[in-house]
């Protein structure tokens, strides 16, 4: 009898884990719909940045170097402290903009553009290095630039999703559809806590960026 029950359970579990059903996909989309919005915005910006890299002139690239790594000669001439400050300052600007938009009831339509602009700069940097330095540029980006950028982009997308929810709640509270002041207050406190976590994650990504620049940038002769 036990063997029959065991074999039945085994066949049931195997049948359950055989594939992903449409209901699982719908649940995933509902559960992570806000995150998917910002991931899609980031990927869209990434594509446009990659396309634009072949058309961008040097003056344009130099002007964007404060936010993105588009002036390689200047970055390679910096010491560790300057590299850390440059990387952290650009990432901090993005976090600050997302934080302020999250605390504004009108921030909902503007938040995806922040992720899209970060994606644009990420694609621009990657494509610029590959187009200008071919395989050497691709190796430099994958080894030196990408790890810290990937870590920060995760923090930015997660914080943007939280900011979207807070901004939405503030908007509905403002137009009178919600009167849960205490609940909104708790959500804002939680958002501030998550913002601190994103800032710590950004600090760690900047440390990683600085370490990789100091360790491996000298191995590439540009």
Automatic annotation (TrEMBL):
Pfam families: SpoIIM
Keyword Transmembrane set for record: yes
Transmembrane segments: 80-103, 110-133, 139-164, 198-220
InterPro entries: SpoIIM-like
Keyword Transport found: no
UniProtKB keywords: Membrane, Transmembrane, Transmembrane helix
Name of protein: Stage II sporulation protein M
Organism: Ruminococcoides intestinale
């Amino acid at each position: 009898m036990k063997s029959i029950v065991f074999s039945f359970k085994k066949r049931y579990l195997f049948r359950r884990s055989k594939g992903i059903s449409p209901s699982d996909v719908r649940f995933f989309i509902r559960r992570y719909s806000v995150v998917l919005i910002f991931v899609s915005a980031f990927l869209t910006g990434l594509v446009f940045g990659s396309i634009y890299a072949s058309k961008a002139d040097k003056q344009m690239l130099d002007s964007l170097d404060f936010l993105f790594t588009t002036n390689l000669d200047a970055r390679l001439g910096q010491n560790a402290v300057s590299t850390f400050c440059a990387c952290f300052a650009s990432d901090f600007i993005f976090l600050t903009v997302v934080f302020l938009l999250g605390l504004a009831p009108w921030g909902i339509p503007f938040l995806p553009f922040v992720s899209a602009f970060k994606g644009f700069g990420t694609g621009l940097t990657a494509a610029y290095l590959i187009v200008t330095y071919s395989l050497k540029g691709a190796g430099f980006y994958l080894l030196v630039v990408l790890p810290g950028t990937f870590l920060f982009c995760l923090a930015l997308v997660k914080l943007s999703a939280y900011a979207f929810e807070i901004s939405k709640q503030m908007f509905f509270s403002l137009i009178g559809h919600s009167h849960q002041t205490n609940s909104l207050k708790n959500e804002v406190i939680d958002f501030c806590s998550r913002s601190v976590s994103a800032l710590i994650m950004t600090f760690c990504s900047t440390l990683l960026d600085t370490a990789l620049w100091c360790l491996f940038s000298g191995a590439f002769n540009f």
